[in-house]
Design a protein that fits this description.
It is built from six helices and eight strands. It is an alpha/beta fold. The strands form two sheets. Strands 1, 2, 3, 4, 5 and 6 form a six-stranded mixed β-sheet that branches. The chain has a two-stranded antiparallel ribbon with strand order 7-8.
């Protein structure tokens, strides 16, 4: 049976968008109908979908405000369907912080919002200092220094575990 899946995402530097595109492409290979929207151009209705996915990147410890507003505005519709929340963040590069129960940003997020998705997932993002504006790079280097991550301004590391994304996508197609 084919599912109709909607995915809305917020991506600052492009990694969340890349992950959502991968999920969409893999789902379509298994004959799922998938619509992908940036939070800035969502033009559909949540109730048009059997499963609805919301994916958000993190900047300075918080998920995108537009994603939070979207969830709060559409809570009734979200509660009436199968939903998935994906957090993409650099803290998830650490094995002890890459699950919904151990990722501090996800834990904090769900303490501050009145919504319980059917499934929650966490993926590590990408670190690419050359892509960041000056002040973002300085702040991210400082955060990485504090968390014992790489700080060299030439660092470019994709921490996303694509095997984990593939496994998640396989599970999503059978939801």
């Amino acid at each position: 049976m084919s599912n109709k899946i909607g995915i809305v995402y917020s991506s600052i530097d492009g990694q969340t968008h890349k992950i959502c595109n991968f999920i969409k492409d893999e789902l379509q290979k298994s004959n799922q109908t998938v619509d992908l929207f940036s939070i800035d151009n969502f033009t559909s209705n949540i109730t048009n979908y059997n499963t609805f996915v919301i994916a958000s990147s993190i900047r300075y410890g918080v998920h995108n405000k537009r994603i939070i507003d979207f969830i709060n505005t559409n809570k009734k519709e979200l509660d009436a369907t199968k939903t998935v929340f994906i957090s993409v963040n650099l803290v998830a590069r650490k094995s002890e912080k890459n699950t919904p129960k151990t990722n501090p940003y996800v834990i904090k997020f769900f303490k501050t919002i009145d919504w319980k998705p059917t499934v929650i997932e966490v993926f590590a993002g990408k670190l690419d200092y050359k892509k960041y504006p000056f002040w973002d790079r300085i702040m991210i280097q400082f955060i990485m220094w504090m968390t014992k991550g790489p700080t060299d301004k030439n660092t470019k590391i994709e921490y996303t575990n694509w095997g984990k994304v593939t496994q998640f996508t396989n599970n999503l197609s059978s939801m």
